[in-house]
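Notebook p. 47: complex prediction with (2R)-2,3-dihydroxypropanoic acid.
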Amino acid sequence: MKVLATRRYPGPAFEELGDVEVAPLAARADVEALIVANEPVDADSFPSLRLVANFGVGYDRIGVEELRRRGIVVTNTPGVLDAATADLTWALILATRRRVVEGDRRVRAGEWTGSWADGFLAEELTGSTLGIIGLGRIGQSVARRAVGFDLRVVYTQRRRSEEAGLADYRELEELLAESDIATIHAPLTPETRGLIDARRLGLLHDGACLVNTARGEIVDEEALVAELVSGRIRAGLDVFAHEPHVPEPLLSLPNVVLTPHLGSGTRQTRESMTRIVVDNVLAMERGDELLTPVGA
Ligand code: DGY
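Predicted complex, structure tokens below:
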């Protein structure tokens, strides 16, 4: 089976692919399987296409509906990136709440001249309220890690989940008003695009912190930038509406920590993602059932 991959994906599993070519997504009549990282696929350019194996759990940019209509199967990599994404969420929570990056900049700029007792105070994490928007696999991993920090945890979700004991349910508006830290773990769908709009951002209390390791488009980015520029809230952002573009005003703000979509970015996790991608391609080659078809 002729496979086209948009890059050499990490890990030894990639070597198990037989007829694979690493190249950009330009029209090809012979390609039967594509390996992409949530990149848009124009089915007209690949008339022999049978499989799109997505390197990632989110597949919002691929154009799944049209592919499915043409009988092309899409797979993703659920399950293996929950821990890494939850860990990065906590890195952003801690960095933002305890002003770690600001502190680092002060030291490097030679601005740490007085005593440790001279101000530069942050907000305590212990005892604060964490609001989780989307208690799926990643949201649950974030919630489990909250136990060690003695946080009160609330969550919101389209369907109430009975993930016993992890968090108490709130409507989205209630959650935003109540949270010291609100963290987003929902997929990007027509329902979640722009979910956190200007009005809802306004529900966060002064000094609250918004963390997003899901998708930039879930938040009204313009409204978020305005809130951050005003200095009213803080944020830890791993994702943006137009990646890799990051809104210019954010770059100089002390109240936001920025990372370049690193949620799944550990060697172990990315290699596991490649393993699933390759296993799906090999399964299709053998005519076996696919491991992780999307929406099946
Ligand atoms: C995904 O898998 O969708 C992530 O955004 C990659 O980290």
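Notes: The mean pLDDT is 97. The radius of gyration is 21 Å.
Next step: compare against the earlier run before touching the bench.
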